[in-house]
Design goal:
One of its GO terms (molecular function) is peptidase activity. This is Trypsin protease. Pfam families: Trypsin (PF00089). 7% of the residues lie in helices and 32% in strands. It is mostly beta strands and 271 residues long. A six-stranded antiparallel barrel has the order 12-13-14-18-17-16. Strands 4-5-6-10-9-8 form a six-stranded antiparallel beta barrel. It has a three-stranded mixed β-sheet with strand order 1-2-15, with no helix packed on it. Strand 4 and strand 5 form a beta hairpin. The radius of gyration is 16 Å and the shape is globular.
Length: 271
Amino acid sequence: MSTNTWFSALKKSAVAIVGAATMLGLASPAAAQPGPDGEVGVQVVGGTRAAKGEFPWMVRLSMGCGGALYAPQIVLTAAHCVGRTGNNNSITATIGVVDLQDTTATRVRSTYIYRSPTYGTSTGGDWALIKLASPVTGVKPLKIATTKEYDTGTFDIAGWGDTREGANTGSRYLLKAQVPFVSDATCRGIGGYYSSLIPAAEICAGNLASGGVDTCQGDSGGPMFRKDNAGEWIEVGIVSHGDGCARRNAPGVYTEVSTFAKDIAAAAARI
């Protein structure tokens, strides 16, 4: 598929926040096909730098995707970022820094991948779990939404992906931005690329009128999150795909975490 098509199915393998004014990197990924290890990229366009420790559970994966620490020894990411379910020690997870060149980073190798068996079907399910060789200490995992209560409002996004569509360079620094919820009806009603939206499995977010802020190549697999009623961060979406990065009337499409929360928990208990 064309790079201009939000990496049509894998838009955010490398998420970036692309800002209209700053072009810092929160753009939407196109539907690129992952390599043997699922390499795909998306970044945040229109973002600003995150402070060290602001989102401690953010993970950068060596194949060019993002993720979030789901449990001390498990990273939640996108299915399109990884290969099939099974043993895998080829991925390195970088945690605990915003600057990828920071020597204080915690780096842990993978040992196993669990890829959603429903990904690529009409059921949807662009999520996967990566088990690490050892637990990450000193970091509280990011909890996930188990109901649709938080699947609305304004969401936060973050990633090390491209800062503009087609850049293919990624960002050295973790960028952050905010995007508003877009209803399933509105998103699907855009037509074209969005006519295949799976309402029960996907959630859209973005500035329809102006664009300018979005996830992009290199951001895929990273979390879309917000505060819950207790004031704690909660993951409601996983960067999945979209039509280009930060375009007008072209929101980002994220895996609706609450739909798959039980499946994610069951898989995490088994690996």
